[in-house]
Each structure stands twice: as structure tokens, then as C-alpha cells.
Design a protein that fits this description.
Blueprint (H helix, E strand, L loop, with lengths): L1 H5 L4 H10 L8 H13 L3 E6 L7 H21 L3 E5 L10 H15 L7 E3 L7 H12 L5 E6 L5 H11 L4 E3 L14 H18 L4 E3 L3 H13 L8 E5 L4 H9 L4 E7 L4 H10 L1 H13 L1
Parallel strand pairs: 1-2, 1-8, 2-3, 3-4, 4-5, 5-6, 6-7, 7-8
The chain binds flavin-adenine dinucleotide.
Length: about 300
């Protein structure tokens, strides 16, 4: 029943898109490109995510891959400053690893023609952490325009940070958005913040152009201070934030001369993404409900 309720064609989904619209740029690529145009005009870059995950059929994965190929062509034609983010479970990872790698590689090849050819592999829940990093490394051996996301709440992450530095890979560092067990994940926010900062500092001083993905003002302040103290220029890293989250801080960072990339999700499969945003912050539920009045 839940599946039916959350399917993109269900009346529930169609009726309730207005709730998600603060965090999701729209249901079509055109709507997403309009959002990117506004971000670019405000001095920000973007990464576009065609929503969808946990695909269990080859046909659905191929459709998503083709949507990415089409998206890359449209980005190129538009001249907008954005790259793309993909989820490997949407590329068919749960069907077959080689199949997902092949889909990813087609995207990496097509992206080479774009002004910003970079493709970010989002990180999903812990059942696919290792395989996601394995596929990333296999792709990276042939294509340099790809990089992973590492989640600071995972106890394994410091070792993954070292590995990415050794490889010379561009990392996006985030706290992590899935509900993981205490065996593999740090649960206390103060501890997550501390390990986030340790990894961020290492990536800033020894890594390649890290993406500091957070809305946490304490981390942002600490990263700025560390970069200044160590003579790390604002062109050697970028802050990253989610579409619709803390637009005031986004604007402020740009005004201060920092690079800011906004993660812009779009598409009809918005439910899973939207619920993760609502579960992680009560403010996000407030924003969603208050959007009823902005409609
Ligand atoms: C660009 C980007 C890409 C991401 N990609 C992934 C991914 O691939 N895989 C993954 O697991 N997770 C991903 N995430 C999500 C991430 O892991 C966190 O779940 C999410 O960013 C929340 O953590 P936070 O550090 O931003 O802030 P939080 O821990 O939610 O909040 C920390 C503090 O920030 C402030 N704050 C945060 N949000 C708001 C708000 N809306 N309004 C007002 N104050 C606020 C508050 O002061 C709060 O105390 C991504 C996040 C970003 C920004």
C-alpha cells in the first residue's frame, strides 16, 4: 500500500508535490534548469539530481540513465553552470554491479562534452557503501571526472578519506542522511561534528577540491577559519548545500567570496528524498507546511 501511495502516478503524490516544492526544483528538467539559472544569477553553481533510487528492474535503470544523458545534452545547450549527481541504485546497482558500472560510464563519457564534466556519485545507505566505493574506483581508473561522497557519521570514513586522498579523487563530505546502527555509525551529533571536521581538514590540506556539504554553521565557521589559517584559497574547495535549505547562509557565503554549489533534485520520485529532509530537521517540516501558504 505504501508503495502505491508513494508511486509517482498516485493521486497522493500528485496532490502533495506542493509540500516538497521547497526542496525539489520541479518534476521536469526544464523546471530544474530554471532553478539553476536563478542560482547561477546569484553567483552559485549547481549539481542536478534526477530523483529516484532502489531500482530493481533493468528497464527502469536504463530509463534513468537515458534521462541523465538527455539532461547532460540540455545542460550543454543551456550554457548553465551545473554538473550532475547520480545514485548507483538508480543505475541498477541492486540488479547487477557491472550493469550499473556500464550505465555510469555512459554518463561519464557523455559528461566529458560539458563545460563542467564532473559527475558525483551520491552515497546511499550502508548496505551499498562498499560496493558504491568499489564501482567508483573502477570508473575512476578510466574516467577522472567522477568522485564519491563520504559520510562523516560512518566509523569507516577516516580510512575512506585517506584512500580518496591517495587516489587524488574529489570528495564530497557530508554528515550522512540514513538511519545507521551504532555498530557502524557515530550517533552523537557533537561526535559527528568532530569527525566531520577532522576529515574536512585533511581533505582541505591534502585532498583535491573537496565539497564541504553541510548547513551546520559551526562546521562552516571552523572550515573557513582553518582555510584562512593554512593559506588555503577559496578556489581550492567549495561549500555545498541543498536546494531550499538555508538560502540566507548560501547568499552570505557567496557575498564573502566563497564558492557555493547547490544540490538541485528534480523529478517525480521525490518522496524518499523529501522524507529524509523532513526526518532530519523539524524546521524542514515547518518549511514544508508553511509552503501551503505560499502556493
Ligand atoms: C550538497 C549536499 C549533498 C548531500 N549528499 C548526500 C549524500 O550523497 N548522502 C548522504 O547520506 N547525505 C547527503 N547529504 C545530506 C547530509 O548527509 C545531511 O543529512 C544533511 O546535510 C544535514 O546535515 P547538516 O550538516 O547539513 O546539518 P544538520 O545536522 O541538519 O544541522 C546542523 C545545524 O545547522 C543548522 N541548520 C541545518 N539545516 C537548517 C535549516 N533548514 N534551517 C535552519 N537551520 C538549519 C542548525 O543550526 C543545526 O543545528 C547531502 C547534503 C548536502 C548539503
Amino acid at each position: 500500500m505504501i508503495d502505491r501511495l508513494l508511486s509517482p502516478d498516485s493521486p497522493f503524490q500528485k496532490r502533495f508535490f506542493f509540500l516538497a516544492k521547497r526542496f525539489v526544483a520541479g518534476e521536469t528538467i526544464e523546471a530544474a534548469l530554471d532553478a539553476v539559472r536563478e542560482l547561477n544569477a546569484a553567483g552559485m553553481t549547481a549539481t542536478l539530481d534526477f530523483l529516484g533510487e532502489d531500482v530493481l528492474e533493468r528497464g527502469a535503470a536504463i530509463k534513468t540513465r537515458d534521462a541523465y544523458l538527455d539532461m547532460l545534452a540540455k545542460i550543454r545547450a543551456s550554457g548553465l553552470r551545473t554538473n550532475v549527481s547520480v545514485k548507483l541504485t538508480a543505475m541498477g546497482l541492486l540488479v547487477d554491479e557491472d550493469f550499473a558500472l556500464d550505465n555510469l560510464e555512459q554518463i561519464l563519457e557523455r559528461a566529458q562534452a560539458n563545460e563542467d564534466p564532473f559527475v558525483r556519485i551520491d552515497m546511499e545507505g550502508s548496505p551499498v557503501t562498499q560496493v558504491t566505493l568499489d564501482i567508483f574506483e573502477r570508473a575512476f581508473a578510466k574516467h577522472r571526472n567522477v568522485g564519491p561522497v563520504l559520510q562523516a557519521y560512518l566509523k569507516r570514513t577516516p580510512a575512506d578519506v585517506e584512500r580518496c586522498i591517495e587516489l587524488g579523487a574529489r570528495v564530497r563530505l557530508c554528515k550522512g542522511a540514513y538511519n545507521e546502527t551504532p555498530e557502524i555509525a557515530i550517533k552523537e551529533m557533537a561526535d559527528i561534528r568532530q569527525t566531520y571536521l577532522q576529515s574536512a581538514k585533511l581533505l582541505l590540506s591534502e585532498g583535491i577540491y573537496p565539497g564541504i556539504a553541510t548547513h551546520d554553521r559551526r562546521i562552516i565557521a571552523a572550515v573557513k577559519a582553518f582555510a584562512k589559517e593554512h593559506g588555503i584559497g577559496a578556489d581550492r574547495f567549495e561549500f555545498q548545500m541543498l536546494y531550499g535549505c538555508r538560502p540566507d547562509v548560501q547568499r552570505q557565503l557567496v557575498a564573502e567570496g566563497y564558492r557555493l554549489r547547490v544540490y538541485v533534485p528534480f523529478g517525480t520520485h521525490w518522496a524518499g528524498y523529501f522524507y529524509r529532509r523532513v526526518l532530519e530537521r523539524r524546521e524542514n517540516l515547518f518549511f514544508a507546511v508553511s509552503s501551503i501558504f505560499w502556493r
